[in-house]
């Protein structure tokens, strides 16, 4: 009988600020638990229709990494969860095609790491970065940074979503892989990709460009995005000192549109009724001021002659 899988710590609540500016410990990691999972549609709801196809667990130094291949109605993806020795948890999501790119970058980073000499504090870069790359997948940016600090070398992988209202990328989710474990991580990822391929499935076309409209002193932004739960629309209302947003999953767009159109029709009908009533009142006013002699209808026309005795006697 297979041993029971270690239980995972409960999920942390997402926070809306950039992890680049958080206080960090000596491992260049946040001093407290934060979990950004980029799961806008249906946040806080059960992930209906999501199926786990395979999983791998890696123990790299004091950390555990879970690589889960999942599938929902939009396709397949890999969730990478990092569990630190003290129970802190973070995770990122990779489309299968992005995971294939990441695997190739892991080979490149591993070769570069192998070419490095022993750490030298005197020649350490000020920001600790030894090598950096970036991957782009639709509205997501993945930043790969091989870094060095007083405790060693590691690969930091962070993901940020980009929209019209978050030009700097918004909050980031991230994991940190000890440099000595990059080959092991790459091999585990390769095994999963060999089994499930690199085809994401689901939506194949290009996502529509964002739209913007201004109403009085407000700006409204419409951004289309995609994550592990599918495609969604984020509608943001922005003023000089205020910003709020809602997220609508694609499966709800038609219903959202129907409700909005229904209100538009009702307001149009109401305005038409009010306009019709006003027009009738004006006609009544004109009728009440009509001169009965001056405005008397002419008897010409259908009878074919002037009204001076052209009719029968």
UniProtKB/TrEMBL annotation:
Keywords: DNA-binding. The keyword DNA-binding applies. Coiled coil: none annotated. Pfam families: PurA. Residues 13-27, 280-297 have a biased composition (Basic and acidic residues). GO terms for cellular component: nucleus. GO terms for molecular function: DNA-binding transcription factor activity, RNA polymerase II-specific; purine-rich negative regulatory element binding; RNA polymerase II transcription regulatory region sequence-specific DNA binding. Residues 302-313 have a biased composition (Gly residues). Residues 1-50, 270-313 are annotated as: Disordered. The keyword Cytoplasm does not apply. PANTHER family: PUR-TRANSCRIPTIONAL ACTIVATOR, PURINE-RICH BINDING PROTEIN-ALPHA, ISOFORM B. Belongs to the PUR DNA-binding protein family. This is Transcriptional activator protein Pur-beta isoform X3. The lineage of its organism: Eukaryota, Metazoa, Ecdysozoa, Arthropoda, Hexapoda.
């Amino acid at each position: 009988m297979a041993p029971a899988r270690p239980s995972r710590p409960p999920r942390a609540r997402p926070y809306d600020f950039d992890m680049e500016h958080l206080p960090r410990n000596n491992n260049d990691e946040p001093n407290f638990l934060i979990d950004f999972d980029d799961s806008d549609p249906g946040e806080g709801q059960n992930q209906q229709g999501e199926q786990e196809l395979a999983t791998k667990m890696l123990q790299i130094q004091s950390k555990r990494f879970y690589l889960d291949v999942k599938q929902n109605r939009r396709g397949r993806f890999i969730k990478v969860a990092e569990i630190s020795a003290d129970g802190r948890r973070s995770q990122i999501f990779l489309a299968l095609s992005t995971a294939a790119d990441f695997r190739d970058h892991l080979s490149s980073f591993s070769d570069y790491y192998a070419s490095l000499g022993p750490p030298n504090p005197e020649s350490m870069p000020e920001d600790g970065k030894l090598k950096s790359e970036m991957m782009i997948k639709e509205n997501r940016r993945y930043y790969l940074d091989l870094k060095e600090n007083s405790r060693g070398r590691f690969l930091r992988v962070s993901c940020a979503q980009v929209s019209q209202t978050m030009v700097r990328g918004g909050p980031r989710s991230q994991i940190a892989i000890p440099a000595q474990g990059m080959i092991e991580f790459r091999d585990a990822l390769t095994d999963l990709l060999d089994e499930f391929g690199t085809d994401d499935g689901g939506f194949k076309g290009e996502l529509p460009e964002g739209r913007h409209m201004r109403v009085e002193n407000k700006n409204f932004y419409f951004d289309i995005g995609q994550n592990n739960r599918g495609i969604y629309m984020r509608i943001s209302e922005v003023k000089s000192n205020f910003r709020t947003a809602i997220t609508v999953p694609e499966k709800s767009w038609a219903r959202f549109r129907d409700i909005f159109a229904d209100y538009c029709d009702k307001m149009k009908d109401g305005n038409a009724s009010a306009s019709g009533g006003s027009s009738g009142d004006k006609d009544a006013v004109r009728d009440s001021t009509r001169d009965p002699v001056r405005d008397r209808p002419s008897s010409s026309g259908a009878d074919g002659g002037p009204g001076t005795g052209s009719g029968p006697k």
